Amino acid sequence: MDAMLGPVPTESVVYPDRDGKRMADNTRQYEWIVTIKGNLDAICIGDRAAFVAGDNLIYPVRNDPTIRTAPDVYVAFGRPRGHRGSYRVWEEDGVFPQVVFEVLSPGNTPREMDRKRQFYRRYGAEEYYVYDPDRNRLQGWLRVGRRFAVVRTMHNHISPRLGIRFDMLGLELRIYAPDGRPFTTFAELVARADAETARADAQTARAEKLAAKLRDLGIDPTTL
């Protein structure tokens, strides 16, 4: 009898915005997630049709809220920036995020990560990257037809979609934006801004000191 009821009306289906899981298991993983997400946001800020999100549930199948996962970071080209409780592919013109990042924590298991990789492959991701900050190990996969092909050498690999470059020569991963600037943490960004402000203040102080000396000599510095 129940089989004759037909599909559940879409409006009655609930798609939770949270899955009850923590965003990160430790501070290192959290910092990497925030750094990757923030820097990708900055790269895409001039492109209104690129949505960047972190720890946000993706629902690829309408009327089935059990099929879902929350990547650490993802980028959906062709979708407007803005806020979303979750990413529902059928409400996004059928666009599944093209680039996905996962940052490992000690609690992630190989079986779990294999399930995630199959999920992204099945539903349409074009690039998938997994970084283990504890081991400084980066893995990547690119879509080839209906399957994922492993990126054999991640050092100096350039993301086809994002144009970012991965550098694996140091003690930890370095990522460079398309213009060559390295990805930075918020603390590094603030320190850099403070250093630039200090340099500017020092230059101003030197200029004012020189102007004062010139005035003492009877020379109007504005005429020089």
Would you kindly provide a written description of the structure presented here, covering whatever features stand out?
With 224 residues, this protein is of the alpha+beta class. The strands form 3 sheets. It has a 6-stranded mixed β-sheet with strand order 1-3-5-6-7-8. The termini are far apart. The N terminus is likely disordered.
Q: Would you count the extended β strands for me?
A: 10
Mean pLDDT: 86
Regions with little confidence, pLDDT below 50 for 5+ residues: 1-8
Shape: elongated
Count of discrete alpha- or pi-helical segments spanning 4 or more residues: 3
Name a few traits of the molecule:
224 residues; alpha+beta; two-stranded parallel sheet
What's the gist of this structure?
The protein is of the alpha+beta class. The chain is 28% helix and 19% strand.
Write the layout of secondary structure elements.
Elements: H1 27-44, E1 50-54, E2 58-59, E3 73-77, E4 87-88, E5 99-103, H2 110-123, E6 127-132, E7 137-144, E8 147-150, E9 165-167, E10 174-176, H3 186-216
Parallel strand pairs: 2-4, 5-6
Antiparallel strand pairs: 1-3, 3-5, 6-7, 7-8, 9-10
